[in-house]
Amino acid sequence: MASLNVLAVVCLGYVALLFLVAFLADRMASRGHSARWLRSPLVYTLSLSIYCTAWTFYGAVGYAARSGLEYITIYLGPTLVMIGWWWGLRKLVRIGRSQRVTSIADLLSARYGKSNLLAIGVTILAVIGTTPYISLQLQSITLSFAIFAEADPLRSVNETQTVFWVALGLAVFAILFGTRNLNANERHHGVVTAVALEAVVKLVSLLAVGIFVVWGIAGGLSQTLQRIDASSIGQWQVDGGRWAAITFLSAAAFVCLPRMFQVMVVENEDERHLRIAAWAFPLYLLLISIFVVPIAAIGLELLPQRSNPDLFVLTLPLAEGQQGLAVLSFIGGFSSATSMAIVAAMALSTMVSNHIVMPIWLRWQEVGASVSGDVRDVVLLARRLSIAGIMALGYLYYTISGGGAALAAIGLIAFAGVAQMLPSLVGGLFWRGATRAGALAGLTVGFAVWLYTMLLPALGGGVLPTHILAEGLFGIGWLKPHALFGIEGLDETVHAVLWSMLLNTGAFLIGSLATFPSPLERLQGAQFVDVFEHSSGPRGWLGSVAQAEDLMIMSQRILGAGEAQRFFQAELARQGGRGPLPEPTPAFLERLERELSASIGAAAAHAMVGQIVGGSSVSVQDLMAVADETAQILEYSSRLEMQSEELSRTARKLQETNEKLTQISQQKDAFLSQVSHELRTPMTSIRAFSEILRDADHLSATDHTRYAGIIHDEALRLTRLLNDLLDLSVLENGQVTLNFSAGRLGDVLDHAVATALADGSADLRVLRDDATDDLRLSTDLDRLSQVFINLIANAEKYCTAEQPQLRIVAQESGDWLFIDFIDNGAGIPPEYRTTIFEKFSRVSPERAGGAGLGLAICREIMQRLGGDVGYLAGQEGGAFRVSLSLRREIAA
What we know:
By secondary structure, the chain is mostly helical. The chain has 4 domains: about 5-25 and about 40-420, Sodium/glucose cotransporter, CATH 1.20.1730.10; about 545-625, no CATH class; about 640-730, Signal transduction histidine kinase, dimerisation/phosphotransfer (DHp) domain (Helix Hairpins, Orthogonal Bundle); about 740-885, Heat Shock Protein 90. A 5-stranded mixed beta sheet has the order 4-6-7-9-8. Strands 1-2 form a two-stranded antiparallel ribbon.
């Protein structure tokens, strides 16, 4: 007989194998070259077997032994969904991918105006509804250990301790492999691959037991059928009400269970996988259920009368001395329980952290969303603590309920709980008129009825007083938990499902019809209902340039510095590579919100972007989607609102333009005064010293040479000023001729540094990284060198550090080359950064320098070359970025 020690070693070895598989899959995926099978439809289909928990592995046999063929309803519901409603699942997956949802709570929140209140309600319902199911898995593992303990005279099992250690082990596995990534849309390849492996293990083990029972014990197929007919199972009668109710519950749970939503929607790599899963998963359900009745019938015949039917899969092999088969069966049941508990804990932890912990934490923070910090650690800690708490709730439910109920009964309680999300989910997918108020009303009413009629009576132990069960709430007879509204005689499950779903749906419809959706709800409704026409997702944010840095800081807090910088660089390249940060356009803010929602949920991401941006606009496409079902007056109201916002934006832009023109006018006046001074000073010197040379009769040769040199230097000064004015005029009028040629970036920089510091008097230290010196350029190299010379000369003139230093950093990003010139001085004050590239602009008129034309000339040159030059904010000193396209062809 296999001892508990041997069984423990087998379990540890199997868990170690799962750890190894999950670790290798995660490692392969993180390196970016994961094997094709990791993203195959086969792995996706097998991961859906997370539906087949210990209830279906152990409980289905017990269900068949107690209720005949009624167990088929547990498999019939998902089969009908996969075959008859796969197009609805495809719509669900498309919405999940386009909206970047992380859980079913996130999806419902996004649909109904990104309401975090609704997400909190769904999360609480999901946690309470799933807790009995997790308790079921813990109970099944404990019972299977107890079966082996009965045959081991040297060992005994303390069920409470066993449940505790099993819950702890499952929590550790879920924490290690379910919270490695903050971004929920990065997929948990390790966990999904481990679940797929467990799907094969539990299928093989159940088929092995079934084959042994049919051909090893019963003597063949015909003898097995005869023994089934002779058993109580052969006398079964169809209870139409229960069959319909349980089939509906299993179908609803298949769509609404958090763990099923996790593997079916969040972990989906390609919605085309649903086409294969539509027939492959029902086939899997057929195979895993095909031997349920034979095992139940033979178990009822051969095993003692008081044997637990839920454990026939284990006790039959043990009774026949098949220890190896019994251990294999135990591993199958162990796989069924662990895979469900792990994925359910992962999914629920994401919901708890995104919709409960994070909003509370952000509200407690005294700082805004744009202040530096790191939210990643808070989110990951919240998810890990949530997993531990969810497992603790399962353990607590087991302790309170005593663990004595049949596995199938516990499973039906959980199914009925999560099914309360179905009206709001389906209504949100197909009805634009569904509102947040209706969804909240339906969920609240349905949850309360399920709690009162099903969950609390099932807990026992005085949780719901006996006088309420017998007499009804407040002594009102028609409020009895099992006879609401005076309707008696119904099966308890049918009664609870009927009233909870009926009242839930009624409250949802009435609430939606009685309230009017907000503009955001209507836009989201259009995106959900017509997702295949509007898969790009909702648009609406409108930001300003000044908010780009705040958005960058906030993104770094949530995504991490590296990931946020890569995202912003990609957006910068998408917009054309102009400026240090991308323009906060509505399209960019939409993509940023989705990127953040994958980590902290749609509602929290929407709130954090809104905290910084604080305004919105509506795109034409979204207005058209809303106008399809609105009345003329509502359509007119939307247009007025849009026009009002447009006028507000135009007024803001006019105000900004007016301020800029005023500043430029002041700078032009200062320029005219300065140019007059610049021209008058050398002209005065030239006139004075030329008169001396003309009128003096007895000048020495030395004085003659000195005065002539002064005249020469002042003439050169005038020439430079006139050349700058002429150069800028030619560039602005488009009359410049560009001479394109090919060359090395290093050669251009070498020439620029040597020219700018040619007099040898400068103490500026230039630091360069020669890694990109060999990069080939196709542009006007002389003009590009002119830009570099000007920037280096500016650093030499205006760097205020005691030991001036200039770093020149070049980097490629897609089709763009960025060359940064960063000094260690004080930099340029923020109020001057928007005008330094304007003509006549000088930040420090009192310091030595030209007339403020250098940077204006640099920008004109770079724009003629198909690039740009801009000020690089966020550095320690003054910094400029030169952007140059690498795709420009050399002119013939």
